[in-house]
Amino acid sequence: MPSLCRDCAHPTDGATNCPNCRSARLVAHPELFDLAIAHIDCDAFYASVEKRDNPDLRDRPVIVGHPGGRGVVTTACYIARRYGPRSAMPMFKALQLCPEAVVIPPNMAKYRQASQLIRGLFLKATPLVEPVSLDEAYLDLSAEARLVDRPPAVLLARLARAVERDVGVTVSVGLSYNKFLAKLASDRDKPRGFSVIGRAEATTLLAPLPVTAVHGIGAATARRLAEDGITTIGQLQAMAEDALTARFGKFGRGLAHLVQGEDRRRVIADRPTKSISTETTFSRDHSAYPALAAALQDLVGRLEQRLRRASLAGETVVLKLKTADFRSLSRQSRLPYPTQRGDLILEQALRLLRREADGRAFRLIGIGVDHLAPAAAADPPDLFHTSPP
Ligand code: TTP
Ligand code: MG
């Protein structure tokens, strides 16, 4: 069965330990390398950040929330949770359950900063990162979106490790084929989890779960359903789409799909990628135009690939050069329309390069595109009078 070491991201044969690093933290699933939508959620987020910043707290129960009579728990660490404290519980009650807990008032600036660092790591894997809150996000790691050509499961194992190492908090990963199931998955194995829901098991896995596990079913809808004796997703699966639509209107139709494990919502990046670029530092300085042009040609090939993977097109071509004495310069040229085509980008880049290749020695050359647009807006066929490759 396809499997992977969660510590070193090495594929394994499903044996008990990783052949590469001997770790026993493996994840195995028949569809492991076929799934591309992920939901990542930090474990006891605020409490984890506090523990990171005060190692004395590591093995102690920590509750984040305003101390005092009327405060509530914002989160409790996993040690504290063993005694019962939970988010939204009145602080006095949490402290009755776990009197030795260390109570820390929330420090939002710190959590926001940690969240930004985590986001930055995610964005190295794919531009399609959709944050849901400070501590959770959806990632689309499908071949068209991802920036690194490795299976999504491998990228996720690496990301989880990078967040631990660089930010100092742990995350739980859910991997599936849509957002609903990815989120459900990330919650099934916490903390430091990696849970996979494949196409083959989705409906059977959903059947015994309470209706509140469905995205969009809150307490009020659950009460209405309970009045009809409906408490599990399996009961909803058994109902015809028409019956659900008659009862819940438009939501009913979506519901009929969700309970079968179908969710067509896309992962939407909250922040448009502003530019895509690639560069190379020479092993020795170059001043001759042909050598510089050849380097540029390689880079444009890479750039074109990245644009196509990210389904993006650029309207401004940016040439970057660094002289032997470390002076950076950047020259740009705007196209009439956004393009994904390497030949057009190269044409502009060479035009810009010709003006700069005046005998100066360069140590670095780079090429990028700015003013990004979705691929759908790229290269209108009538504009350049040739069809895209
Ligand atoms: P959650 O992801 O819901 O919880 P968590 O990260 O603390 O724990 P888990 O391991 O179960 O994911 O929420 C993220 C943060 O949001 C949490 O650390 C504190 C804050 N929060 C509140 O302020 N109020 C709340 O009611 C909840 C649930 C969370
Ligand atoms: Mg969380």
Low-confidence stretches: none
- Attached small molecules: thymidine-5'-triphosphate, magnesium ion
**Helical element count?**
14
User: Pairing-aware structural class of the strands and helices?
Assistant: alpha+beta
Q: CATH first level of the largest domain: which class?
A: Alpha Beta
- The structural domain count equals 3
Number of DSSP strand runs: 15
Name the strands of the widest sheet in spatial order: 8-9-4-10-11
Distance between the termini: 38 Å
| CATH arch. level architecture of the largest domain | 2-Layer Sandwich
* CATH topological fold name of the largest domain: Alpha-Beta Plaits
Rg over CA atoms, rounded to whole Å, is 26 Å
CATH superfamily of the largest domain: Reverse transcriptase/Diguanylate cyclase domain
Mean pLDDT: 92
In terms of DSSP E residues, the strand content is 15-25%
What shape does the CA trace take? globular
Q: Sheet with the most strands?
A: 5 strands, mixed
- The helicity comes to 25-40%
Provide an overview of this structure.
- With 389 residues, the chain is of the alpha+beta class.
- The protein folds into 3 domains: 1-200, Reverse transcriptase/Diguanylate cyclase domain (Alpha-Beta Plaits, 2-Layer Sandwich); 208-258, DNA polymerase, domain 1 (Orthogonal Bundle), CATH 1.10.150; 275-382, DNA polymerase, Y-family, little finger domain (Dna Ligase, domain 1, 2-Layer Sandwich), CATH 3.30.1490.
- The protein has helices at 45-53, 78-81, 91-97, 108-125, 152-166, 179-186, 202-206, 219-227, 233-237, 241-248, 250-258, 289-309, 342-356, 381-384, and strands at 3-5, 11-12, 26-28, 37-42, 62-65, 73-76, 102-104, 129-133, 136-140, 171-176, 194-196, 275-286, 312-323, 328-339, 362-374.
- The strands form 4 sheets. Strands 8-9-4-10-11 form a 5-stranded mixed β-sheet. The protein has a 4-stranded antiparallel β-sheet with strand order 12-15-13-14.
- A hairpin with a 5-residue loop joins β1 and β2 (11-12).
- α4 packs antiparallel against α5 (152-166), α10 (241-248) crosses α11 and α12 runs antiparallel to α13.
- It is globular, with a radius of gyration of 26 Å.
- The chain starts with a strand and ends in a 5-residue tail after the last helix.
- 38% of the residues are buried.
- Bound molecules: thymidine-5'-triphosphate and magnesium ion.
- Magnesium ion (MG) binds next to β4.
